[in-house]
Amino acid sequence: MVLRGKNATLVVIGDIGRSPRMCYHARSLADKNYRVQIVGYTDSAIHQSIQHHPYISVVSLRCPPEYICKLRPIFALILKFLWTLTVLLLTLFFRIDWPLLIMVQNPPGLPSLLACWLCARIRRAQFIIDWHNYTYSVLRKKYNIDEIRVSRASERRIQNSLNCSDDHSLVVNDVSGMRGKRMTRVERAVQAAAVAANKRKRQADRKKRCSIVQRCVEQIYYWEGYFGRCADLNICVTHAMRQDMFDAWDINMFDAWDISAATVYDRPPAWSFRKLTDEERHKFLLKLIDYGGEFEVFKAVNNPCLQIDCISMEETLISYRDNEGKVQLRNDRPLLLVSSTSWTEDEDFGLLLDALREFDNIAKLSSRTNPATRLPFITCIITGRGPLRSYYLGRIEHMQMQNVEILTPWLKAEDYPFLIGCADIGVSLHTSTSGYKFV
């Protein structure tokens, strides 16, 4: 696909600051001299490299009123759909430049897929969907729906092939043998009973109670498939998701003649995430210490477990500057474990807390037997905001570990990549409702 022109619009029905993948797309296009406009919510700070880029501008969307979330699920879903559709259409047609490329993040695909497809067709722009999950699977988990009654394209292909083979075998038998004989009375009765049983089963399935929300989720499944087939290009995070889209909705794979779906893995760019040098790590830790609060734990004198004597103001819990002015890492430094979370049910942080407790018990035994084989102290930093944060903070307060210290600060957007670059161990407990995001 050839991108024409120099205007591109990226749509995120979510917080732009928490959508790094779309920010990476924007930066990549802007570095190729495309003028990029990112449409979305601006609840949190955006990375400076995006915010101050001369070719990138942000178009803020107005969030739905808070009272909508307090309504019954079906009414909240409908009102949020209408609100977001109206605001997004007004933005795409009256607040942005004439685009030749519209890329939308899915999920959420309701109603962004419809609005972006409509704008792309009217303005003759390329319509691209960036898939990192499925909207229907997210809603299915949100409303605790056990199963949805949908048909996949792969199942229909198999059924059609079986029907064709059965028809072919009947024709062959009729032509070749002409030896078919009439069914006996018993065979006719058995066949009639089977047909009646299948009819009763279908009627019972139709009579099963199905909530309105479940029916909406089932329709959203077909909604995503329809717009996926309408897109000029579908970008998937894994090959497994691309294959699943083909099996579910007949969205073609990437080939030399028909470009419909391609895989672009989540890889952090070098301008944002990288391993820090000892000098950079030392300066960043001093910066965190200046913030105060929980970060004062990085002061060498504030950790009696390690029995460190602070010899200069340029010394931290992990590094120090020697007499020659070079930064050195301490031999008795703790391991820095970093994890980020949205504190939702998608991430079971009980696994990490249980593992840290087990490590603390083993570390106590190792320090008693032989100091030379003593396990290191762990400083664990968990950053993020979300609904289950207070619950896990209560668990952390009652853990009382001797060889593990857990911090739960909220970092600035520009500090988060540096913290990741300082980490000795990184832990991600995020799971995907689609089951194909990390395969």
UniProtKB/TrEMBL annotation:
One GO CC annotation: endoplasmic reticulum membrane
Top-rank taxon: Eukaryota
Locations listed in the record: Endoplasmic reticulum membrane
Annotated pathway: Protein modification; protein glycosylation
Residues that span the membrane, as ranges: 74-94
Keyword flag Heme: no
Membrane topology: Single-pass membrane protein
Keywords: Endoplasmic reticulum, Glycosyltransferase, Membrane, Transferase, Transmembrane, Transmembrane helix
MF-aspect GO terms: mannosyltransferase activity
Predominant place of localization: endoplasmic reticulum
Record flagged with keyword Glycosyltransferase: yes
Record-given protein name: Chitobiosyldiphosphodolichol beta-mannosyltransferase
Lineage per the UniProt record: Eukaryota, Metazoa, Ecdysozoa, Nematoda, Chromadorea
